[in-house]
């Protein structure tokens, strides 16, 4: 399938004469559509065997383009001239009708130009960077073959009494609603009621200047000053979190591009699967890394390591690239380029690795609770034997959190490099399952990359490696925080960011211009706190509303009474109260609440009048 999309001010078309005897009836045909996304398409000979799958994949791409150009009206226009090998007319018509059926609903207005006619048409393209796009839709034959060979995964629920229960037969207890949602989605294939609904968190992300980058490939994001500040703070914090584990953590940095001619790289990439970003440079094939693994392993293989140095961790916030399907892209959650705070913990043996696995597991839950979220566990395993041999270990993980877990046993026959991989999922405000934190035991890559240590007897050994993103990918971590803000809003509470992440922690509002100089001097007294001043020539009510819309945690109103008394009238977003405070008491309160979290300066000038109008 080949398509050409034109974001248009209008398209007018008129059937002139039949191109084939079986041309569609044109009675009642719409002949003009304004402000629409026009999809010229050709179904090809190679699409005929899998025309329904091609239709689904094409619709996913159309929805992706429509989302980027923010268009709700779609015109499907059959256009045989995009390919030299078009399909038979009957298959082409079936495919177009299937696309029309899949697109129709509450989300889009869908129109289709008549099939089988020579048509005159007039179109006006809007002319922005995304107004003209071409796409070639293909099924991934290798992926389909791997799926056929892989076999089925087997799911069991591990209850708190140690019994393994078929997901269809499990008796859910009080308080296990979220666990049930995860089980139904992962094990039983049921989609949540929130699928296809426009999520509220996207407006919150846009508020803080986090959005798609329309001039890049699909699935790539951009961050304005406030969004960049939030991401930088989260990055700083991710390093602090792994350092708090209590073992040496070595912060490293590296490249994103790795040569597929290196056997360790190609083998690891093959095990990873289908979502590889690849490119050719001077005749060689390269892969963009999808986590920090390549760089850390390529570096650590050159280190001289003793058993006395272990355990230790290597850490990097790695630019990571995964070629997610365009129809499955979700802002902040499923994206093609993201920032992964990847930590690898190198352990001497399985016993030591299980000890630190448990420590990381506890830390992952601790961090979720700090942002007022909770996790449901999906434990992926490569064999029943490993589970039975380590059942006490898994039961301790469950009992520590007083939660059952869903086990997923992968089919045998593949050379997995890991033994166990836990996905930690929140259930978001739309009842969708969202993986955030992870940890896994890797028994294969130290040998594959040539990483070794010298044991007590002077013998070379390959360490076991724990992979973890304790707080999750940075974008997903912020996603979880924004999701909590949505949940607060649904509970009639003021949505907010954690104080340490708020781009502005306190805003000073002068009652009139007479207090402006005092307010500027006052802002200088807040050390280690992000404070700005609203010096716009607006009413007090509008300034306060703007601060509330910006989710400013502390709003300080300064009139002549406050200038004379040295006290401040402070509106506190978290509690909704208003009280008199001194600069010392407010500073102490903010610093107490942000203790242990990183700090960075304001992302823009202190005076609001000096800032441009930022967009996402």
List keywords for this structure.
17 helices, BirA Bifunctional Protein, domain 2, single chain, globular, Rossmann fold, alpha+beta, 616 residues, 6-stranded mixed beta sheet, D-tyrosyl-trna(Tyr) Deacylase, Chain: A, 10-stranded mixed beta sheet
Ordered list of secondary-structure elements with their pairings:
Elements: E1 2-18, E2 32-42, H1 51-69, E3 73-78, H2 89-103, E4 109-112, E5 117-125, E6 132-136, H3 141-150, E7 154-158, E8 164-165, H4 177-186, H5 201-207, E9 210-212, E10 221-223, H6 225-243, E11 249-251, E12 257-259, H7 263-272, E13 278-281, E14 284-288, H8 293-300, E15 312-321, E16 337-347, H9 350-370, E17 376-381, H10 384-389, H11 391-401, E18 405-409, E19 418-427, E20 433-442, H12 445-449, E21 453-454, E22 460-461, E23 464-469, H13 474-490, E24 506-510, H14 516-524, E25 531-533, H15 540-549, E26 554-558, H16 560-565, E27 568-572, E28 578-581, H17 583-593
Parallel strand pairs: 2-3, 3-4, 11-15, 17-18, 24-25, 24-26
Antiparallel strand pairs: 1-2, 1-5, 1-6, 7-8, 7-18, 9-10, 12-14, 13-14, 15-16, 16-23, 17-19, 19-20, 20-23, 21-22, 26-27, 27-28
Count every helix, treating DSSP H or I runs of 4 or more residues as helices: 17
In the CATH scheme, the class of the largest domain would be: Alpha Beta
Give start-end ranges of low-pLDDT stretches.
142-149
**What is the subunit organization of this protein?**
single chain
Helix content: 25-40%
Q: How many strands, what sense, and barrel or not for the largest sheet?
A: 10 strands, mixed
Q: What would the average pLDDT be, to the nearest integer?
A: 93
> What would you say the CATH architecture of the largest domain is?
2-Layer Sandwich
Q: Gap between N and C termini, in Å?
A: 33 Å
Strand content: 25-35%
CATH superfamily of the largest domain: Bira Bifunctional Protein, Domain 2
